Amino acid sequence: MTFVYVGNVEKLRNEVAEYQDRINDRYRELLGSNRFQKLEDVVKKVLTPNSFFNTLEDFQKIFPGVKTSGTGSSNNFSISSVRPEIYENGRLVESSGMVSSAFYISEDSFAKSASATFTDKIIGGYIHEFNHFVAFALQERPLELITAVVNNLIGEYYNSPDKVIKLIEAQSTNQNTQNRRELLNLVALAYQYDFQTERTTRILDKNVLDSIGIKVNHSWRDKDLKMAHLTPRYDKGMTIKLLIDGDPFKGVDDKEVINRALDWETNFKPINEYHFSDQFLDSIKCLTLEKVSLDDFLKRNVRT
Ligand SMILES: [Zn+2]
Predict the structure, then answer these.
(1) Distance from the CA of 93 to the center of ligand 1, in angstroms?
(2) What is the tally of structural domains in the chain?
(3) Which of 145, 141, 148, 146 is nearest to 262 (CA)?
(4) Model-level pTM?
C-alpha cells in the first residue's frame, strides 16, 4: 500500500480504509508507475506507527529544535541530521546525512488547518500533509532541507511575508553589510521555497481530493504573480523580491507543476540571485542523503 496512515486517530483510520484504493489509483495516474513504485518503497522504509504524533507536545519533546507554524494546525515535518552550519561562502559544512519524516495530525489539528475550510473529512487534511511527504519521498534530496537548515540557523520559521518584512526592517547599521545581505537572501530563499511548495502541494491536493469527491477551487490558480520589492532602510543598494500572491505556475498544467516540483534540482530557480544563497542551494544538491524511519533516525543520531 502506498497511501497509508498507521497512526491511531480512529476517525482518520476509518476514512483511510474507506478511500485508500481510489486514492492509490489516483496517485498512480498522477505520478506515473515509476514514481508510484518509488513512493511505495519509501513509505515502506520510512513510515511506522511512531512517525505519527497526536499532539505537538509529544513531537516537540523529541524534537525541541524543530520550528512549527505556531498555529497548531496539522503538519508534516522533515527531520534532518545535516548540521545547520555553513562556510563563509554559503555552502553547508556537511556533505551527507540522514533524513526522516513525521506527521502531526489529530482531530484538533485538522480543525485548525486550511483544509477544514472546505471539507469536514479529516482525510482531506491528511492528504495535504501526505502530499508534503510525497515530495520528501520523491525528491532525490528533499527541498524541505532549505527550511530545516535555515530554521535551525536563524531560529525562526519564515513562512509569511510579514515575518520577512519585519526581519528586513529590524536590520540596522550595526551589522556588517555583507552578513546582513547574506542573512536576508537566505531567509528570502526559505520563504520562496515555502510559498512555492504550499502552492504546489495544494495543486496536488486538488487532484487527489477529486478522486474521493472533494472539489477544490484555488482562487489564486492562473492569476498573475504578485511580488514585493523591498529595500532595507540602511542598505539602499539591496532589493529583496518576495512572492506575495498569485500563481508561480501560471499557464503550466497541474501534472507538469507536480513533475517540476519533484525534480526541483533542475527546475527550482531562486527569484533573488545572490552568490551566497545560490551556493547554499547548490550544496544541498551535492548532499548524499539516506531516507530512514524515525525509529532508525533516533537510534542512529543522538543529536536532534
Ligand atoms: Zn502545507
Answers:
(1) 29
(2) 1
(3) 141
(4) 0.94
